Amino acid sequence: MDEGDRPGTAGTAVVTGGNRGIGHAVAAALVRRGCDVVLVARDRARGEAARASLAGLGGARVQVVTGDLSCVRTTRETAEALRQACPRIDVLVHNAGLWPSRRALNEDGLEQAFATNHLAPFLLNLELEPLLIASRARVVQVSAGLYVKGRADPERTPTGMDFHPMRTYADTKLCNLLLVPLFAGRWKDRGVTVNAVHPGVIRTGLGDRRGLAGHALRVVKLLWKSPEAGARPVVRLALLPEAAGWTGRYFHLEDETPLASVAADTARAEALWAQALDLTGIAAAPSPSPEPR
């Protein structure tokens, strides 16, 4: 954090994966609106480069927290670093994501996309909960319309036994959406809101591949929308005054959209919550009743 940076006036926002793509565009928009921003980046040098690129956009402070969200241990370390860095959290944007081309397991024996895209937001929500409640925070989960292709098999998906590049990514986004109403119910009357948003088909590095297939994808991406376009519906949920009363909702861009039946299964959501508690080693967070949509 630069000594000369002036505190923002719109609170403190934490953006995971804030060093590039949609996350960086979200961070830039929040800085312009006066938010102090904490970028969570896995690579310190890339995080600092992103911070430097935001200099001059506004008077807010921009800070980098180095955080690896690919396993339980390092996600907990990231949460502790955020507690040390942030006296309050007014906005938490879960943007960091992984779209792998092959099955790979982390140190917990879990498939990496499942751990990064699903378990990390779950664990951060619970680890940072006191800060979120104290600040009456808004939590925004960056989602994807591909969730409709997900199955999220509780026996096979966590370890990638049913790995498929597209469907495994879709599984993680389905998991996110299944838990949004449960977090909304947990935080009901505690001042914290949580909503999910599909930002559109956006031109980022997510899902990039090597070889001919990767080259073809990069060509196709030239037709996709910019990260700045993808940031707009995320920032809307983070800062729009009337959104302060919205929770447990799913938005496609700026339109609230009913979830497909695969993401509206309460029993499945509660089982997924219990599994996430087990996988992260948390014993004191019983499954809440979902907030009605």
General description of the model:
An eight-stranded mixed β-sheet has the order 3-2-1-4-5-6-7-8, with helices on both faces. The protein is globular. Helix 1 packs across helix 8, helix 4 packs parallel to helix 6 and helix 6 crosses helix 9. The chain is built from nine helices and eight strands. It has 293 residues and is α/β, with parallel strands linked by helices.
Write the layout of secondary structure elements.
Blueprint: E1 12-16, H1 21-32, E2 36-41, H2 44-54, E3 62-66, H3 72-85, E4 91-94, H4 112-127, H5 129-135, E5 138-142, H6 165-186, E6 193-198, H7 211-221, H8 227-239, E7 250-252, E8 255-256, H9 266-280
**Number of distinct beta strands:** 8
Low-confidence stretches: 1-9, 213-224
Chain oligomer state: single chain
- Which class of secondary structure composition applies to the elements? alpha/beta
Described by the principal axes of the CA atoms, the overall outline is: globular
Helix content: 40-55%
Q: Give the SSE order as H and E letters.
A: EHEHEHEHHEHEHHEEH
Span between N and C termini? 40 Å
Strand proportion, as a percent range, falls in 5-15%
Report on the biggest sheet.
Answer: 8 strands, mixed
Overall residue-averaged pLDDT value: 88
Which strand order do you get reading across the main beta sheet? 3-2-1-4-5-6-7-8
How many DSSP H or I helices?
9
Rg over CA atoms: 18 Å
Main attributes of the structure:
alpha/beta, 9 helices, globular, about 290 residues, 8-stranded mixed β-sheet
